[in-house]
Amino acid sequence: MFSLRPFLAKLLETLPPAPADQEELKELVSRTLTEARPHASTENWKSQWEYLLKDEIFRLVVKEGKALRENSDAYYEELRDKLDLVVLFTEQDACEQTFPFIVLQDLLESQTIDSCSQIFSWIEDRAARLMEGLVPQKGKALILLRTLNDLLRRLSKMGSTTIFCGRILTFLSAVFPSWGEYGPAWEGVSFELPTEKEQEHAEKEDVDMRAGYESGPDDQIMVDVSSKSERTEDPEEKKKADFYNTFWSLQLYFSKPTTFATPGTLEEFKEGVAKVMPVIKEATAKERAMMGSRNLAGTAASLKRKRDPEPETENGETNLSEYFFAKFLTSPDLLDLEIADTHFRRQFLLQLLILLNHLLTFTKEAKETWSTSRNRSLQMDFTLEPADAQWAVEELKQTTPNGRQFTDTVSTILDREKNWIKWKNEMCAPFDKEPWTQEVNGERVGLWEATKAARADMLKPPGPWIHPLGSKPLSDVWDKGYTDLSNLSEHPFRPGDVRYFVNLMKQTDFKINRRKKQLEEELARWQKEQGEAMESQETDLTKGDADGQTAPSTPVTVTKSLSASGSLSLHPSLPPKPGSPVKAPESAKPSLLGALSAEEDEAVEDKPKPKSPNEDEELGELYEQKKRIGWLALRPARETHLQHFGKIGTGDLALLQQEIEGEKKREAERLLKEESTAMSEEPSCSHVIYVLQKTRQYKVISIDNNHNSRSEALDRVSQLSRSELPPNPTQRELESIGVDAHKCDLSRPEEVRAVFEQYGKGGIWGVIHIAALKAVGESTEIPLDYYLNNVSATIRLLRTMNEFDCHRMVYSSSATVYGTPPVIPIPENTRLEAHSPYGRTKIMGETVIQDLCHSDSRWRALSLRYFNPAGAHPSGVIGEDPLGRPGNLLPLLAHMAVGRVPPSTLKVFGNDYPTIDGTCVRDYLHILDLAEGHVLALNALDPESKVFDGLSEGFFKGYNLGRGTGISVLQIIEAMRKATGFDYKYEIIGRRRGDVPDLTADPALAEKELGFKAKADLETMCRDLWNWQTRNPYGFVEEQPNSQQEEPAKQ
């Protein structure tokens, strides 16, 4: 941030050991300033150094507590050196003259008493340099005096500080000869600092005092009580105290103008102003006189215009940057010193001007312009009389500010005050309101009476709470069986899919329609009853006329009448609709309803009109439930079906479900054909054979139809194993490097049976079943071939093994069995749900083996579900050599770098996933780690193994093999770029349908029970893959066959 920081850092590095020699320090500072001068402007030269030096000191100060516990001497020596730097920078005009005193003030306020004593010792040592150019009542003199007075006040509240207080008082007396009287008589006073010998003598005496002093509970600063009364009786002291009280009493009126409403307050205020203003004016005149001599000398010296380093205002008052805003000490003895401060006087005058202007708005004439009953927020029961108004005007004239800058500031502030008051009076809404009332039993009562019944109900003891666990959601969670945190891991909650919520929505719609129909039936029934009642009344009235009964001659108001449409009014107690025509009743014939009896009226009124659908509470709850269902459905759906949200309007779930089903139907084939990075490769059989041979425990038999492999690979494996034999190998070790290779097809049981017959019953100890067709896209085109080769062939192999008493199998499964997993990282207990025929063949294979283990206790099998193997043997002798174009990302990148695939632009599907860089994340592991996992699983099938402990039957388990760490697409590209030096070009395109953000294994179970651990990282995988590819550009053949020319790369 600061261009000068490197120069200060360099200076601090070159400081000599503490305590540093002052001349050497001075030379270092001078050199630093010379080097730094071209790197900072003149405007911020001082401010930068001040900030950096203060920052360095307070970085040290924050470590005070720790430093005092460990090595206080080193801390204080470093602090003294940095304070010396502050003084040296100030002496060379890199900081303001007041800067050292500002730093000291902050230090003494923040440090402990012990540290303050050490800092004060430094002040005593550097007194001659610090006090150079000291001007009483100005600049650093004010700061120093205020700082030491604050320290004395702090020490007065503590014990055992008498010696320290004496040192401060002695110092003040030496620096300020008139300090003992606290008076402003410093002008023209000369003083001398103690010599070095006197200083040494004083320090010696100070040490002797410390040595001979025994602290005790009465060790406090003593006050001469007997002389106190004599001082208070002194007329000058009494006058000073009265003035002090008068001056600060004016703050009451400044802060609370409403006190003027009290009779006699204005007179007290006028008396106070009359006492204070002469003193303020005297201080200003005194300062002008003192500064005027300097102005005169400057004018006489030269008439040539030049830039003054310290510009002055019109009235001679300086506007120096070293002016210090006083921390008003509120001490009678220091008030003279505070009034001598220009800023202190200006603050008082500004307060007085604001209050006088405010008082003038309360004259009788002024109040008529703004006082209204609308808003009384600024009003008080006070009117300024003409005589008092004349006094205020005169005071305003006498208090007119001098100096153009101060005048402009005062004018701006006064205008803002007036505008603010005007705005508040004219724009704020009235706040007077009638008391709250409510009609109860025909009488309007206040809040207390109206809430009497409700408060009585609140005092009744509450009944049992309807939710046993406090709230409905918590009770529902408990009822669902989630009574402990372990339940969440055993049975994780999964929100339903869109189809589930669509069914809930249909059920809610059914309830809504049923309720609407019920309301319509109730309304029709009510209207029918009302019509029958009207007909009955007309019949009774006609019958009464026929019997000679006469209606009263007095007209009766019609309380029920038929509207123009023939419908009845809303309620019998309501009057006719305003504005509707009402026929005058004939005197000869009474009103139709005038003859209704009271009993009939009551009977009609007992049946109010049913609620409309808009008024029905049950319907309202159903509509709210419908909204809630829609929200619950759309929230999880946005994670996987966000692309359809623009097609469903305001949230039509049925339409969303249609879009999802349509997408599944339209894109199923393409979704399964596209090679997803979630799909795993089968491990190279050669690497598994190599690891088996390395154990020197097994004789390896290979059965392969070489559908996607080369026989040369086995020769290289034997060559590699032979090179790793120890000197003078045993016969068993020599036999372990050989491979009995048989070319046969598992889908032809007679060929497999012939191999087993060569070794007889029990001759083969176990089988690692790796062989399978594994292209996801291809499985959608020829699913029958996949079921025949991966499922039927597995069943035939199991039958043959069972026939020849071979009951141990390690089944090479795949991560495709998990489909789109609900939990990341993926545990083994995740439901199996594949999305392709290939993945379903793996699930079927596991199911068949598991059922076999349950039916026959002799069988033991482990299924290994692994993710993305990569890399090769570090020697580069064996590695992955796919026939045709590589289907996985890492082999494709290697082929591009070596030149087997033209260097075209890679296409990365999506960079807006919630991952580290926005691209998909997958779990990669080294091919040798994967091969090691197969051998560990084979060893676990030994009768002495404990992996099946706890199982009484069905000795079958599934394990994840992976690193448990996800790697993004861009991280893989960057790792291959570092390994190969090839500059891969890639292009970010839209998401690929079916890709999920993260597929990472949870290998904890395999690590715990099998001892499996994927050790190699991504860098090792890329390095070993590139080593294999550069040594074998065309795999296990010397040159690329013409029949296998590669097509342009597509990723």
From TrEMBL:
Q: Which range is the signal sequence, renumbered to this chain? A: none
Report the record's Gene Ontology biological process terms: galactose metabolic process
In its keyword annotation, does this UniProt entry include Ribosomal protein? no
- Cite the SUPFAM superfamilies for this sequence: NAD(P)-binding Rossmann-fold domains
Which keywords annotate this record?
Carbohydrate metabolism, Galactose metabolism, Isomerase, NAD
**GO MF terms on file?**
UDP-glucose 4-epimerase activity
Cofactors demanded by this protein = NAD(+)
The protein's matches in CDD domains, at most eight in alphabetical order, are given as: UDP_G4E_1_SDR_e
Q: Where is this region: Disordered?
A: 195-237, 297-317, 527-620
A Gene Ontology cellular component where this protein is annotated is: cytosol
Positions with biased composition (Polar residues): 550-559
Pathway listed? Carbohydrate metabolism; hexose metabolism; Carbohydrate metabolism; galactose metabolism
InterPro entries for the chain: Epimerase_deHydtase, NAD(P)-bd_dom_sf, THO_THOC1, UDP_G4E
Q: Where is the composition biased (Low complexity)?
A: 560-572
Do you know which PANTHER family this protein is assigned to?
A: UDP-GLUCOSE 4-EPIMERASE
Hey, which family's this protein in?
In the N-terminal section; belongs to the NAD(P)-dependent epimerase/dehydratase family. In the C-terminal section; belongs to the aldose epimerase family.
Which NCBIfam families does the entry link to?
galE
Its biological purpose: Mutarotase converts alpha-aldose to the beta-anomer. It is active on D-glucose, L-arabinose, D-xylose, D-galactose, maltose and lactose.
Q: What is the name of this protein? A: UDP-glucose 4-epimerase
**Per the UniProt entry, what species is this protein from, by scientific name?**
Coprinellus micaceus (Glistening ink-cap mushroom)
Highest classification ranks of the organism: Eukaryota, Fungi, Dikarya, Basidiomycota, Agaricomycotina
